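In keeping with the milestone schedule agreed at the kick-off meeting, the structural modelling team has produced records for the first pair of proteins. Each record is given below as a sequence line and a C-alpha coordinate line. The laboratory manager (R.T.) confirmed that both were archived under the project's standard naming scheme.
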Amino acid sequence: MRENFDIVDIGPDAVFPDENKNPGIGETMVSFAENIIKVAHRVMKCMAVALGAPDEDFIVNRHKYILRDGAICRLRSIYYPSINGKKVQKQDKYMVANLILSF
Protein backbone atom coordinates (compact mmCIF):
# COMPACT_ATOMS: atom_id res chain seq x y z
CA MET A 1 0.00 0.00 0.00
CA ARG A 2 1.20 3.48 -0.76
CA GLU A 3 0.01 7.00 -1.27
CA ASN A 4 1.45 9.20 -3.95
CA PHE A 5 0.94 12.66 -5.35
CA ASP A 6 2.34 13.90 -8.65
CA ILE A 7 3.09 17.55 -9.25
CA VAL A 8 3.30 18.57 -12.88
CA ASP A 9 2.93 22.33 -12.46
CA ILE A 10 3.99 24.69 -9.67
CA GLY A 11 2.71 27.80 -11.43
CA PRO A 12 -0.13 30.00 -10.13
CA ASP A 13 -2.78 27.65 -11.58
CA ALA A 14 -1.37 24.53 -9.89
CA VAL A 15 -3.88 22.28 -8.12
CA PHE A 16 -3.10 20.56 -4.81
CA PRO A 17 -5.06 18.29 -2.45
CA ASP A 18 -7.67 19.82 -0.14
CA GLU A 19 -5.96 22.46 2.04
CA ASN A 20 -8.50 21.80 4.82
CA LYS A 21 -7.32 18.20 5.15
CA ASN A 22 -3.68 18.98 4.32
CA PRO A 23 -2.90 22.47 5.65
CA GLY A 24 0.00 24.12 3.82
CA ILE A 25 0.55 21.28 1.36
CA GLY A 26 0.54 23.54 -1.70
CA GLU A 27 3.00 26.04 -0.27
CA THR A 28 5.23 23.29 1.11
CA MET A 29 5.33 21.31 -2.13
CA VAL A 30 6.02 24.41 -4.25
CA SER A 31 8.87 25.41 -1.94
CA PHE A 32 10.30 21.89 -2.00
CA ALA A 33 9.94 21.71 -5.80
CA GLU A 34 11.73 25.03 -6.28
CA ASN A 35 14.62 23.81 -4.13
CA ILE A 36 14.83 20.43 -5.83
CA ILE A 37 14.88 22.17 -9.23
CA LYS A 38 17.95 24.10 -8.03
CA VAL A 39 19.61 20.78 -7.18
CA ALA A 40 18.67 19.38 -10.60
CA HIS A 41 20.17 22.45 -12.29
CA ARG A 42 23.43 21.98 -10.38
CA VAL A 43 23.59 18.35 -11.52
CA MET A 44 22.83 19.43 -15.11
CA LYS A 45 25.68 21.96 -14.98
CA CYS A 46 28.05 19.22 -13.83
CA MET A 47 26.84 16.98 -16.64
CA ALA A 48 27.35 19.73 -19.21
CA VAL A 49 30.93 20.32 -18.09
CA ALA A 50 31.66 16.58 -17.98
CA LEU A 51 30.24 16.10 -21.48
CA GLY A 52 32.20 19.04 -22.91
CA ALA A 53 29.15 21.20 -23.74
CA PRO A 54 29.80 24.72 -25.06
CA ASP A 55 28.97 26.22 -21.65
CA GLU A 56 27.91 24.95 -18.23
CA ASP A 57 24.31 26.14 -18.70
CA PHE A 58 23.87 24.25 -21.97
CA ILE A 59 21.59 21.56 -20.48
CA VAL A 60 19.91 23.90 -17.97
CA ASN A 61 18.87 26.22 -20.80
CA ARG A 62 17.05 23.33 -22.43
CA HIS A 63 15.14 22.56 -19.23
CA LYS A 64 13.82 26.02 -18.34
CA TYR A 65 10.25 24.88 -17.86
CA ILE A 66 10.65 22.16 -15.24
CA LEU A 67 7.29 21.78 -13.45
CA ARG A 68 5.65 24.50 -15.51
CA ASP A 69 2.55 24.17 -17.66
CA GLY A 70 3.25 22.04 -20.70
CA ALA A 71 6.43 20.41 -19.37
CA ILE A 72 6.67 16.63 -19.47
CA CYS A 73 8.45 16.30 -16.12
CA ARG A 74 6.87 15.73 -12.74
CA LEU A 75 7.72 15.57 -9.08
CA ARG A 76 6.26 12.46 -7.44
CA SER A 77 5.95 12.18 -3.70
CA ILE A 78 5.41 8.60 -2.53
CA TYR A 79 4.54 7.65 1.03
CA TYR A 80 4.42 4.08 2.33
CA PRO A 81 2.29 4.10 5.52
CA SER A 82 2.69 1.52 8.27
CA ILE A 83 0.39 -1.48 8.33
CA ASN A 84 -0.60 -2.82 11.74
CA GLY A 85 2.02 -0.58 13.34
CA LYS A 86 4.88 -1.99 11.26
CA LYS A 87 6.73 -0.02 8.66
CA VAL A 88 6.45 -1.84 5.36
CA GLN A 89 8.81 0.40 3.46
CA LYS A 90 10.09 3.81 4.49
CA GLN A 91 11.17 5.56 1.37
CA ASP A 92 9.95 8.80 -0.13
CA LYS A 93 11.03 9.41 -3.71
CA TYR A 94 11.01 12.62 -5.66
CA MET A 95 11.52 12.73 -9.41
CA VAL A 96 12.67 15.81 -11.22
CA ALA A 97 13.80 15.92 -14.86
CA ASN A 98 14.49 12.15 -15.02
CA LEU A 99 16.59 12.27 -11.86
CA ILE A 100 15.46 10.12 -8.93
CA LEU A 101 16.35 11.47 -5.50
CA SER A 102 15.49 9.20 -2.57
CA PHE A 103 15.27 10.42 1.01
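The second protein of the pair:
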Amino acid sequence: MTQSKATDKDLSWLIFKEGDYWVAQCVEYDITTQVRLLKEIGEAIEYAIVGHIAVSKEIGQEPFECLPDGILPGDLNIYFNSLAIMNSEFRGY
Protein backbone atom coordinates (compact mmCIF):
# COMPACT_ATOMS: atom_id res chain seq x y z
CA MET A 1 0.00 0.00 0.00
CA THR A 2 1.40 3.40 -0.97
CA GLN A 3 1.09 6.18 1.55
CA SER A 4 -0.45 9.42 0.29
CA LYS A 5 1.92 12.39 0.16
CA ALA A 6 -0.65 14.38 2.16
CA THR A 7 -0.56 11.95 5.09
CA ASP A 8 3.25 11.52 5.09
CA LYS A 9 3.98 14.60 7.19
CA ASP A 10 6.11 15.66 10.10
CA LEU A 11 4.08 17.97 12.31
CA SER A 12 5.33 20.29 15.07
CA TRP A 13 3.23 20.88 18.16
CA LEU A 14 3.27 23.66 20.71
CA ILE A 15 2.08 22.23 24.04
CA PHE A 16 1.16 24.57 26.86
CA LYS A 17 -1.01 24.73 29.97
CA GLU A 18 -4.13 26.90 29.84
CA GLY A 19 -6.10 26.89 33.07
CA ASP A 20 -6.82 23.27 34.03
CA TYR A 21 -6.04 21.94 30.54
CA TRP A 22 -3.00 21.03 28.49
CA VAL A 23 -3.37 22.31 24.94
CA ALA A 24 -1.56 21.00 21.85
CA GLN A 25 -1.58 23.37 18.86
CA CYS A 26 -0.16 22.17 15.57
CA VAL A 27 2.26 24.71 14.11
CA GLU A 28 1.78 23.81 10.43
CA TYR A 29 -2.02 23.40 10.37
CA ASP A 30 -5.11 24.51 12.27
CA ILE A 31 -5.39 21.43 14.48
CA THR A 32 -5.77 21.78 18.24
CA THR A 33 -6.62 19.41 21.05
CA GLN A 34 -6.74 19.60 24.84
CA VAL A 35 -6.61 17.23 27.80
CA ARG A 36 -6.59 17.49 31.58
CA LEU A 37 -3.51 15.29 32.09
CA LEU A 38 -0.25 15.86 30.22
CA LYS A 39 0.30 12.10 29.88
CA GLU A 40 -2.81 11.97 27.64
CA ILE A 41 -1.64 14.59 25.12
CA GLY A 42 0.00 12.14 22.70
CA GLU A 43 -3.18 10.08 22.39
CA ALA A 44 -5.26 13.25 21.94
CA ILE A 45 -2.96 14.47 19.14
CA GLU A 46 -3.18 11.10 17.41
CA TYR A 47 -6.97 11.09 17.74
CA ALA A 48 -7.21 14.61 16.24
CA ILE A 49 -4.99 13.70 13.27
CA VAL A 50 -6.68 10.36 12.57
CA GLY A 51 -10.09 12.03 12.87
CA HIS A 52 -9.12 14.74 10.41
CA ILE A 53 -7.77 12.19 7.92
CA ALA A 54 -10.87 10.00 8.22
CA VAL A 55 -13.28 12.90 7.68
CA SER A 56 -11.21 14.24 4.75
CA LYS A 57 -11.28 10.85 3.03
CA GLU A 58 -15.02 10.50 3.70
CA ILE A 59 -15.79 13.81 1.98
CA GLY A 60 -13.37 13.15 -0.89
CA GLN A 61 -10.59 15.58 0.01
CA GLU A 62 -6.90 14.99 0.52
CA PRO A 63 -6.05 15.30 4.22
CA PHE A 64 -4.70 18.70 5.26
CA GLU A 65 -5.54 20.42 1.94
CA CYS A 66 -8.52 22.28 3.40
CA LEU A 67 -6.72 23.45 6.56
CA PRO A 68 -5.11 26.88 6.78
CA ASP A 69 -1.32 26.81 7.09
CA GLY A 70 0.53 28.07 10.17
CA ILE A 71 -2.51 29.19 12.12
CA LEU A 72 -0.84 29.86 15.47
CA PRO A 73 -2.32 32.98 17.05
CA GLY A 74 0.07 35.96 17.04
CA ASP A 75 1.61 35.58 20.50
CA LEU A 76 1.98 31.80 20.16
CA ASN A 77 3.60 32.16 16.74
CA ILE A 78 6.19 34.58 18.16
CA TYR A 79 6.74 32.27 21.14
CA PHE A 80 7.15 29.16 18.97
CA ASN A 81 9.56 30.90 16.59
CA SER A 82 11.69 32.14 19.50
CA LEU A 83 11.82 28.58 20.90
CA ALA A 84 12.84 27.22 17.50
CA ILE A 85 15.65 29.78 17.28
CA MET A 86 16.80 29.01 20.83
CA ASN A 87 16.67 25.28 20.09
CA SER A 88 18.73 25.61 16.91
CA GLU A 89 21.30 27.76 18.73
CA PHE A 90 21.48 25.24 21.56
CA ARG A 91 22.12 22.41 19.09
CA GLY A 92 24.73 24.49 17.29
CA TYR A 93 22.91 24.74 13.93
